[in-house]
Amino acid sequence: MKATVLHAAGWVDVIDVPDPAIEHPGDAVVRVSLAAVCGSDLWPYRGQESFTPGDRMGHEWVGVVEEVGADVARVRPGDLVLAPFAFADGTCPACREGWFTSCPAGGFWGGGNGGGQAEAVRVPFADATLVPVRADADAELLRRLLPLTDVMATGAHAIALAGVQPGATVVVVGDGAVGLCATLAARRAGAARVILVGRHRDRSALATRMGATDVLSADDPATVGLIREATEGGVPGVAECAGTQSALDLAIDLVRSGGTIGSVGVPNGVDRVDLYRLFRDNISLRAGVAPARRYMEPLLADVLAERLDPSPVFSAEIPLDAVATAYQAMDTRQAVKIAIRP
Asked: Tens of pLDDT along 51-87?
């Protein structure tokens, strides 16, 4: 089969690799229907995160089950399934408490585990990991479902961590796919005002479409003052969705006393936190990788009921053989997110 690999910084390619096969009784083999390039894929692509040459790429994908192991009971061949960006056994203490991304026996797609930017994937712990859709899906529905595997679930996690309540005002820091999905998640949670602070003016219309009531520039020195003035000193909840030092600093500047920051951006280059500010003003900082599996079934129900549509985060859809162009376009900020069609 064909699969995307990272040979070196700036060099992804599609090569022939062995077909996946059942290795354990709890496995499934899934044929990928649609995948995506994630912003976090860009860290190793840029050489800013360690990798092994030849690592498989891609952790966002949906597909159809082709084969299952002897112990698999919840999914069956022919099922359309969602795969969260991490697999987990579903039985350990972390899984039982809903922290699937902390499962000691689990792992993340990509590297040596097989990547979703490919024609097929072997799924360990298939019953615990995969979410059956139980609906016929055309190309449009697949695009609505795909963000649930990562960016929509991560956006929902940011809003949950930030403790956003119905009728509240929330700031979302970051206008990438996660920030845009957090904006959508904030409106889903009942927020009355969602202020998106980002760095790309050309995404303002998309941010508004995703639910932002206000869109401001992170690079404008007046932004902090404007938000503080409009919110009587800051907001009760901030969703930090970029993972940079400047984004975290901005989140701390914008949260009010007693408020909460939900930080889900993969921290890259973050080396300090203003702990005294948090201490002095009773600010909570809750950060962590999203346990996507926890959020997927409620999000799926909303998508199927046509109450939720995160598909606008996709700038384009291209064939697997052209995946290198997707990395280039996202790396140069020409696209928010690109779907990959095997």
From this structure: 999 999 999 999 999 999 999 999 999 999 999 999 9
* Domain spans in the chain, listed from the N-terminal domain onward: 2-150+291-341, 152-287
Contact 122, 29 (CB under 8 A): yes
Question: What's the rounded mean pLDDT across residues 106-114?
Answer: 94
Mean pLDDT, rounded, for 257-271? 93
Strands (E) located in the chain: 2-8, 11-16, 28-37, 55-56, 60-68, 80-83, 86-87, 107-108, 120-123, 131-132, 169-173, 193-198, 214-217, 235-240, 255-263, 284-287, 316-319, 338-341
Q: How does residue 112 score in pLDDT terms, banded at 50, 70 and 90? A: confident
Residue 132 has pLDDT above 90, yes or no: yes
Tell me the CATH number for domain 152-287. Answer: 3.40.50.720
CATH number of the domain located at residue range(s) 2-150+291-341 in this protein: 3.90.180.10
Distance CA 206, CA 209 (A): 5
pLDDT for residue 7 is more than 90: yes
> Quick one: pLDDT band at residue 278, thresholds 50, 70, 90?
very high
- Identify the CA nearest to 87 among candidates 78, 75, 77: 75
Reference 320, options 102, 82, 63; nearest CA is: 63
Token couple for 12: 């992804």
- The string of DSSP codes covering 246-257 is HHHHHHHHHEEE
Cβ-defined contacts of 165-169 (< 8 Å, 24+):
165/189, 165/190, 165/191, 165/236, 165/237, 166/190, 166/191, 166/192, 167/191, 167/192, 168/192, 168/193, 168/235, 168/236, 168/237, 169/193, 169/194, 169/195, 169/231, 169/235, 169/236
Q: pLDDT tens-digit profile of 99-109?
A: 999 999 999 99
Distance CA 125, CA 336 (A): 32
Integer Cα distance of 167 and 282 in angstroms? 22
